[in-house]
Design goal:
The chain has 720 residues and is of the alpha+beta class. It is built from 25 helices and 22 strands.
Length: 720
């Protein structure tokens, strides 16, 4: 946006680009530069593409918007050396390819004028109406502000607030980032990496949430090429080699089309190539790629019932792979996606994945909310921009708030919790965690209402979703009429009734953070713990096990013993020079030798020991708590929790446990979270015969193929 606009005073050289579709544009951007042809009319391609989706669209408003944008940006150049007007034109073309309605395209052409030129919002409102002005203003509020590490978090906080009012603002932002990613090669490598990281962590998940798969897949490939150039080059070589050989899917597609014709089903059958990241994921999952792994069969039909008819024919005439069947028509994804997924074995033994959907489903699968048109039009269909007299399409509600019927429930909840995030870093961390959730459930309240929660949510999440901060006093819940603990994971369709204590002054336990999945619950619990450090330390310390006295260097010293309740045996000792003092190892950071540690006196006179880097230490010092000097006694066996981050693959769990056993560590407990985008998170609680062996154990786990990080578990209470 404005960061790329300059005014060198040099004459403008107008350049166009070949008429190619969105997917080819992305492939060209990845595979290298192409020749640029001069277009006699810079707007011709946009207009032609828009008319293909909206034959009756009024193109005069687009011409007026282009004239204003071109004249206002005249003299400005992008860092690539092109006239700046090529950027809004490219963004508008991307949206036109996806079928955006005229209002969105008009705002897209003007999306940088208010920020980068002397054009004002009043001028936009006067010439193009209230709706276009609203969208331009929403995009303008996302301007880059260079104020350090918080710049990106704050920018995206603004973006989400703007998106909550109108999802079309997000559509323009996504297209804007896509074009900037295509032309990122002119920037310094470190800036490319920073922008790519933000795109990967926030914009790609948001594109997935909004269902805009066409933008999401291309952004994934561009990020992949920047952040993992060696793996990208290998994947590129693999795909190039595959294209030089016969594609087994082509013959299978002809076979499928013949079967459907004989069954009297009108359908289009095509081979849909996988994008780079998809091929990379398949290669990691399966090791050696088959010829049919480079694409999938796409079957398009007219009606929903035809989808199931196609499925029946395929499963009758070919051998189905039942484990690959998924019905996203009966149960659509949270991002509007609908399709039938299956896999069949062809005559030559090739296994092919098949996507079955209607033409309407396919449009929504590619363009998501963009395919829904103007959400504020009276009939819910796409409409043109307002006339020059400023008349709006639809009347605003009396209270001034806009009710967007296309806004999904997850976005409404996201807008709710972002207001409670105390600082940009907390917002950023929580946003990334929330976007990692890829499935939703609906649970019922006893009063007949419903709660939308992410998959894996617990009774703690339900309590905060229903009662807000009043859930601090929750003591349990009833799930489907039966008493349940707060850690109980809820299923789709469950009925939940959180139970609150009569004493409203009671607060949450740090252990609750082990069970929450929703940002609103995590922020509320963390906020309470931050403002009640003494109570939080008392609750956390009470869970530590004190199984007996340790070695005493002198009569004034007492020792702490780590381990879970009910575990006997000598463990690591921590020593403080205070008479008759109970010492506990904090459960939030699980300190063991040779960690550098400190301690704090908590309620009852006990001393809780923390690692120096534990965020609780910073919080305690901030409220004036005086640290206590702590030393390690004789090192013996210890218990520690490790988290292994890895790419999913066969035998990964077996290889990890073998590495753990090879280090003479005993597995006390293990948790493997469901894979998310081919990444798996393992959590192990381990008993070591000697704390000194911990670094070697972590190195052995990191050496397991597919594991890219092993770290000490950090209690979520400390995450800020």
């Amino acid at each position: 946006m404005s960061a790329e606009a300059t005014n060198p005073g040099a004459p403008i050289r107008r350049r166009g680009r070949p008429r190619i579709d969105l997917r080819r544009l992305g492939r060209v951007a990845l595979l290298g530069p192409v020749s640029r042809d001069r277009l006699p009319d810079a707007l011709a391609h946009v207009a032609e593409t828009h008319r293909a989706h909206h034959p009756d669209a009024d193109l005069s408003v687009l011409h007026r918007a282009y004239v204003l944008a071109e004249s206002s940006h005249r003299g400005q150049m992008r860092k690539s050396g092109e006239p700046y007007i090529t950027h809004p034109l490219a963004v508008t073309l991307i949206l036109a390819e996806l079928g955006a309605e005229t209002t969105t395209l008009t705002a897209s052409l003007l999306h940088d004028t208010v920020e980068d030129t002397e054009v004002t919002l009043d001028q936009v409102r006067e010439q193009f109406g209230e709706e276009v002005c609203y969208l331009v203003d929403g995009v303008t509020k996302l301007e880059k502000v260079d104020y350090g590490a918080a710049a990106e978090p704050e920018t995206f906080r603004k973006m989400l607030v703007a998106t909550g009012d109108d999802v079309r603002v997000m559509s323009i932002k996504l297209a804007d980032r896509l074009h900037n990613m295509r032309t990122l090669g002119v920037m310094r490598p470190e800036k490319q990496a920073r922008i790519a990281h933000v795109t990967r962590d926030v914009l790609i998940p948001l594109a997935e949430r909004l269902g805009v798969q066409a933008l999401k897949t291309e952004l994934e490939d561009l990020v992949f090429a920047i952040l993992h150039p060696e793996e990208y080059a290998h994947t590129h070589a693999v795909i190039s080699a595959a294209t030089a050989t016969a594609d087994p899917l082509t013959a299978l597609a002809d076979n499928v089309a013949s079967v459907l014709r004989e069954a009297g089903i009108t359908a289009e059958v095509a081979v849909r190539p996988r994008h780079f990241v998809s091929v990379h994921r398949v290669r990691i999952k399966r090791g050696e790629l088959r010829g049919s792994d480079f694409g999938r069969l796409l079957v398009l039909v007219g009606e929903d019932a035809d989808c199931y008819a196609v499925l029946g024919e395929l499963h009758t005439c070919f051998t189905p792979v039942i484990s690959e069947f998924k019905d996203f028509i009966a149960s659509p994804k949270f991002n509007l996606y609908q399709s039938l997924h299956t896999a069949v074995v062809g005559p030559e033994g090739e296994v092919a994945e098949v996507l079955i959907r209607t033409h309407r489903m396919h449009k929504v699968a590619e363009a998501g909310v963009i395919a829904l048109g103007n959400p504020y039009a009276a009939d819910g269909t796409a409409t043109s921009a307002e006339p020059a007299d400023g008349t709006a399409h639809a009347a605003e509600p009396a209270d001034g708030e806009r009710a967007d019927p296309t806004r999904p429930g997850w976005l409404s909840r996201l807008l709710q919790w972002q207001q409670s995030a105390p600082d940009p870093d907390t917002f950023w961390t929580t946003l990334r965690a929330d976007l990692a959730q890829d499935r939703e459930i609906t649970v019922f309240r006893t009063d007949g209402g419903t709660l939308g929660l992410p998959a894996g949510a617990s009774c703690v999440d339900a309590a905060y979703a229903q009662y807000g901060d009043a859930a601090h006093s929750c003591i349990g819940a009833r799930v489907n009429g039966r008493l349940a603990t707060l850690s109980t994971v809820l299923g789709d369709g469950d009925t939940v009734q959180p139970l609150l204590a009569e004493d409203a002054a009671s607060g949450p336990s740090p252990d609750w953070l082990d069970h929450v999945r929703t940002p609103v619950a995590r922020i509320a619990i963390t906020g309470w713990l931050d403002t009640h450090p003494q109570d939080a330390e008392t609750v956390a310390g009470s869970t530590a096990d004190a199984t007996g006295p340790g070695p005493q260097p002198d009569r004034a010293a007492r020792s702490a013993w780590s381990g879970s309740t009910g575990t006997a045996g000598r463990t690591v000792s921590a020593v403080v020079e205070r008479p008759d003092t109970t010492v506990r190892l904090a459960g939030c950071c699980t300190p063991v030798p040779p960690d550098e540690v400190t301690g704090f006196t908590v309620r009852g006179g006990a001393v809780t020991v923390h690692r120096l880097e534990c965020p609780v230490v910073t919080r305690m010092e901030a409220v004036g708590r005086v640290p206590v000097v702590v030393n390690w006694g004789d090192a013996a066996e210890c218990r520690v929790t490790l988290v292994a981050e890895s790419f999913g693959r066969p035998r990964l769990l077996a290889d990890l446990t073998e590495a753990i056993a090879g280090a003479d560590a005993a597995v006390v407990s293990a948790t493997v979270e469901p894979p998310s985008e081919q990444r798996v998170r393992h959590t192990y609680t381990l008993q070591l015969p000697d704390a000194a062996g911990l670094p070697a154990l972590m190195r052995a786990m990191r050496d397991v193929p597919g594991v890219y990080d092993v770290s000490r578990a950090q209690h979520p209470a400390a995450a800020v």
